[in-house]
Amino acid sequence: MPIDLLDDSCIITGMKKVTAEMPVDTILEKEPRLARLFIDAGLPCIVCGEPFWGTVRELCDQRGVNCTELVELLNKETDEINEKS
What we know:
The protein is mainly alpha-helical. The longest helix is centred in the C-terminal third of the chain and has 18 residues, at 67-84. Helices cover 46% and strands 0% of the residues. The protein starts with 23 loop residues before the first helix and ends with a helix. It has four helices and no strands.
């Protein structure tokens, strides 16, 4: 995974801030608890049996989901998980 896809602001098990350009599998590998947000948005992901190997933006574009809103939700959840750690 290219390091330039990551931002230094998030510490979840080595995970950095989620961006629209991050691969979905990388996000879920580093923080599986975020799968719920993909599922709630109606997006297939690795954990739910319909693997997707692209970026968050590609998945959102493919399914007509607002990428900006999803990334905000992913980062909000990531921040909450970090606060509990």
